[in-house]
Amino acid sequence: MNSTELVEALQEITKEKGIDKEVIFVALENALISAYKKNYGTSQNVKVTIDRTTGDCHVYAQKTVSEDVEDTLLQISIEDAKKINPAYSIGDIVDIEVTPKNFGRVAAQNARQRVFQE
User: Fold this and answer.
1) pLDDT of amino acid 86
2) What residue ranges define each of the domains in the chain, with the CATH number in brackets?
3) H or E element: which one contains 38?
4) Phi then psi dihedrals of residue 41, to 5 deg
5) How far is CA 72 from the centre of its chain?
6) Which helix (H) or strand (E) is 17 found in, with range?
7) How many CB atoms lie within 10 A of CB 40?
8) 44 CB contacts (<8 Å, ≥6 apart)?
């Protein structure tokens, strides 16, 4: 199942089950966060986004900008953050894309399982 097929399958399910499309996308994004953490054994704060039109999935590690980094999974130095965007300051959250190569396939499998559970 590719990204476009994922969107089409979710649209079909919204019609069949009468569930709002956005509710399904949010539930799927949350399920993918859990799947990512389980599959990659990480305690990182992550965010998953699914493009509502194309079905493309992206995973972002969310790191807090810190002056003194104590945990590289959860924090990013102010110097490194400013390389990404000079507007970042201490305490800001930086999204760093960490999408695994095969994550689209994982997303499609999880979507199918998640939807059929509900």
Assistant:
1) 97
2) 3-117 (3.30.1480.10)
3) helix 21-40
4) 50, 50
5) 19
6) helix 3-17
7) 13
8) 37, 61, 62, 73, 74, 98
Question: How would DSSP label each residue in 89-113?
Answer: -TT-EEEEE---TTHHHHHHHHHHH
Burial of 98 (0-12, 13-18, 19+ CB in 10 A): middle
Give average pLDDT by consecutive 10-residue segment, the chain, 118 residues: 74 85 88 83 88 89 96 95 98 94 68 61
Q: CB-hemisphere CA count at 13 Å for 58?
A: 10
Q: Which residue has the tokens 């709002």?
A: 20
Give me the pLDDT at residue 106, please. Answer: 65
At residue 95, the 3 state secondary structure works out as strand
Residue 115: closest CA among 23, 52, 2: 23
pLDDT of residue 41: 80
Write down the pTM of the prediction: 0.78
Rounded to whole angstroms, how far apart are CA atoms 54 and 8? 10
Q: Identify the three-state secondary structure at position 76.
A: strand
